[in-house]
Amino acid sequence: MKILLAYPPFSEERIRDEDVRAVPIGLYYVGARLLERGHRVRLANWHDVHRRPGEVARTLAEFRPDVLGLSLFNANRWGALAVAREAKRLDPSVRVVFGGVGATFLWRHFLAHFPEVDYVVIGEGEETMADLAAHLEAGGGAAPAAVPGLAFRGPEGPVRTAERPFIEDLDTLPDPARRFTFQHVVSSRGCPWNCRFCGSPRFWKRRVRFHSPDYFVGQIETLARKGVTYFFVSDDTFTLRKDRVIEICRRIADARLPVAWQAISRVNCVDGEVLYWMRRAGCRQISYGVESGSPRIRAFFEKRFTDDEVRRAFDLTRRFGILPRAYFIYGAPGESRKTIDASIRLMREIRPLALAAYVLDIYPGTRLYEEYKRRHRVSDDVWLSPAEDLLYFETDPALDGEKVHRLGRRLKRAFHEGLPEFAESLELEDRPELRPLHADFLSRLAMTFSHGEYARVGDIPRKAETAEVLFRRALEWHPLPAAYLGLGVLRQKARDFPGSIEVLEAGLARFPDDEQLHLCLAVSLMNTGDFAGALAHLERFPDSEAARRYLPVCRANL
After folding, report:
1. Counting CB atoms within 10 angstroms of each CB, which of 5, 87, 114, 278 has the fewest?
2. Looking at the whole model, is its pTM more than 0.90?
């Protein structure tokens, strides 16, 4: 059969789409299983297809799938329905299958209200989708009652089949990296905790299953050979099993794989040894769910850890040259200036170097959602509205929406205002093998202040000064072309061309063939009137676009 697996668009445009642009990793695993079973499979990332008018219709018309599988979160459900309608318009015989966390918890809702949806895969999708495809290919009819883990429309309305057991050995799944190229990877499935705002406890039943280090590192190696050098490890808690993480990291480090990556962890699931090996293996960032500095609000969220555990995790992460990113959630019951101030105090103690602050949302499948339905006596029909999501403060008369947003802005502003001090106060673990990694860490962090993400944030003070401190500290740990270049550019921007020349020449003394150092030095020399000196540096790189731009200027002035 021809099967098109697609990640549908979201209803609302995002200023920054890094949280939604990646195809869910599960879709690649489903595609790999279907390919193994002999089907023709195509994947489409349509999260931003509104920027490419007509692409959905063109792809459907060209590929003519027998089955269209759509992977849903809650916020892209309307995009999925629009794609399904277009598919049915072009070919009424196409079978539309919804899957993913958004479909699992609203299977009855979709089948009751939207005739364009034929099937919903509930839970883990690889075996269910493969069995459904086999059933349809064999002409087994529209009601595959023998396929577990599936829902469909029966004579009396939506029905679901028996629950499908989890795949116990994840290594039995075909490696999707052999068929597809992607950056978001997982080494495990599930989470043992029970956060009130999260759908994972119900989706994965608080069980965790793991790929072996052999499987996971082999997947990284396969993707690296395809040119993927940066990974997002999307496990709910990558460091859940310390010995396993260390083995994975040892293998990556021993193989000298040219990769960098970031992961998600929990503050009471890291220590110095695991962080050391993560850094050695290329880890650049770890995200931790702090959520709030208020113990009462953290208890409401079911975040069972202490402030001391938060402080320890962030201190160790910083010491090993890994950027600690803090998740905070605002707008919980009882949120006030006092609770936000508690979050700000804790933030100033742990000194995160990145922040993700979100207003509390209510999602299907969460305890928060079930409590909301009972409290307000509503059903899943609330999702017939066009809204992408449901903000908690909209359901709590004790909370004022504008005040909640104002508190959120206060939290984010406090982070931005404190960020230079957070960065400049870094104290790093002094081990010889870590020194080059520390230089790289400090240099990359400096770049975010000089011309990266933080350079564009108005609330952050002393950006250039902070960048210069970090570049100079990088060079104290290990010589690095990027640090010399960063300092040279900062001096240029300050119109200190002699200072720029001095640092760039120092960099070239160590890295005489570095093209960017030569070109930057040429620009500084031109600004001092030394066109002959600049020409000598530019002529080394005649194929460079920058050199071709500046060469005529130098020659005209000689």
Report:
1. 114
2. yes
